[in-house]
Design brief:
Layout lengths: L1 E2 L5 H4 L7 H10 L30 H21 L8 E13 L4 E12 L2 E12 L6 E8 L19 H6 L3 E6 H4 L10 H7 L10 H16 L5 E11 L1 H12 L5 E5 L17 H7 L22 H6 L5 E7 L7 H17 L16 E4 L2 E6 L7 H14 L1
Parallel strand pairs: 1-10, 5-6, 5-7, 7-8, 8-9, 9-11
Antiparallel strand pairs: 2-3, 3-4, 4-6, 10-11
Bound molecules: beta-D-galactopyranuronic acid (GTR).
């Protein structure tokens, strides 16, 4: 069910609220964090449409030339980190092609993207299925995979809803994936392994890129390949990620405007969720538990959310006027579903300014109900922290509408 105009939830069912059972369960298992809506502190969000001097941004031109770069730079310096300016070379090699994949429905391409700096190199293994029924270049969903290869089996012997390739092909889209670990293994080793080891050379500062920024960079290298493949419509690439991959997809889309759609599934803290709400995971916790994900500057805001000159609605605003889809799951209170929705709500003034969406209601939609306004969309699915076919079907409904 799609709601595309303001204020009609009353006819569709109750606006979603966390169930008291979920709140109790989460509070019991992680008592040091807050899951109660009543205990969310009062906060004031920085105005996404006022520049650093407080002046209101009133035109699309001012947004693009002034405010957008200002916000992008805030996230680069304080959250995800800066990529070192090091020369590297890149090559693509088609290591496997099967024009008769999925019983003839699709063409499988496996492309090695080799990155070299000096003596060192790494390979991003890109797996891609394109629908054989297509009559021209096709749009592609690119997943930044933060789970195991069992979710993305190119032989299709093992299937997983996390990357439902058959279903995406059946709807006329291409689907691609690379493993985040190809770019940078997801562990803290003082940035010696992966692309950091190759590009940082031990020269790191407080704003040097973390692991999420490295994965986002990997997504851009896949985009470089898409631009060379005539069977792909590279103007219609969606970057998709779940959880830590969802945080990454948001930064990938913010930093690389070639992605025409960003889908952030249950991205939570350091992703779509408003940090000032401090519901579920907090900045302090994420920095302690995953010291490699963000740049060092982000630690300045551990426990000091109100001092940030930004919040995550401003990250989301960087995707406008391109397409942005946020989703959450009802039992995933760790990732603050309401905080994710409100971030989208507070990013909408930028979509409106750029004529890419009127706005969404402040109230959350009912469970399992999609809300779309122009190029922005959202749903909250019943159940736990995961990315399922149900979610993908809504992503594709959104893409059908936007593309
Ligand atoms: C959790 C982390 C979340 C989220 C999640 C995941 O442990 O606290 O921020 O990223 O992992 O990626 O599944």
């Amino acid at each position: 069910m799609i709601i595309s105009t303001l204020g009609i939830y009353a006819q569709q069912g109750e606006s979603w609220k966390a169930s008291p059972e979920s709140v109790k369960k989460m509070s019991g298992s992680r008592p040091e964090f807050n899951y109660y809506e009543e205990m969310v502190p009062e906060y004031t969000l920085p105005d996404v449409l006022a520049d650093a001097s407080g002046k209101k941004i009133k035109s699309a031109g001012k947004w693009t030339k002034k405010r957008r770069p200002e916000i992008l730079e805030m996230f680069r310096t304080n959250v995800y980190g800066r990529i070192p300016e090091i020369l590297y070379t890149k090559s693509f090699s088609m290591v496997n092609i099967d024009e008769d994949a999925m019983g003839g429905e699709a063409t499988l391409k496996q492309v090695d993207i080799k990155i070299t700096t000096g003596e060192e190199s790494l390979v991003i293994h890109l797996t891609l299925f394109l629908p054989n029924a297509a009559s021209g270049p096709v749009p592609v969903f690119l997943l930044i995979d933060n789970r195991g290869p069992e979710n993305t089996d190119p032989t299709r012997k093992v299937k997983s809803e996390f990357w439902p390739a058959e279903e995406v092909i059946a709807r006329g889209y291409g689907i691609a994936v690379f493993s985040n670990a190809d770019v940078d293994p997801d562990n803290y080793d003082e940035f010696k392994n992966g692309i950091h080891g190759m590009m940082d050379h031990g020269r790191r500062s407080d704003d040097s890129w973390g692991t999420l920024a490295a994965w986002a960079w990997g997504a851009s290298r896949c985009m470089d390949y898409f631009e060379t493949d005539e069977e792909i419509d590279s103007k219609k690439i969606a970057v998709v990620g779940h959880s830590r991959g969802g945080k990454t997809a948001l930064w990938a889309g913010a930093d690389d405007q070639r992605f025409s759609m960003v889908i952030a599934n249950e991205s939570g803290c350091g992703g779509a969720a408003l940090a000032r709400r401090r519901l579920g995971e907090t900045i302090e916790r994420i920095n302690n538990a995953f010291p490699h994900w963000f740049c060092l500057n982000y630690r300045k805001y551990s426990g000091k959310e109100d001092e940030m000159p930004f919040d995550m609605h401003m990250l989301l605003s960087l995707i406008a006027p391109r397409a942005l889809y946020i989703d959450a799951a009802s039992d995933d209170l760790w990732g603050d579903p309401k905080g994710c929705y409100l971030a989208l709500y507070h990013a909408m003034p930028v979509f409106r300014l750029l004529k890419a969406g009127e706005g969404i209601p402040e109230e959350m939609p009912p469970l399992n109900t999609q809300v779309i306004s122009g190029n922005a969309g959202f749903h909250i699915r019943d159940g736990s922290h995961n990315m399922l076919l149900k979610d993908w079907n809504w992503f594709m409904d959104f893409a059908d509408q936007v593309w």
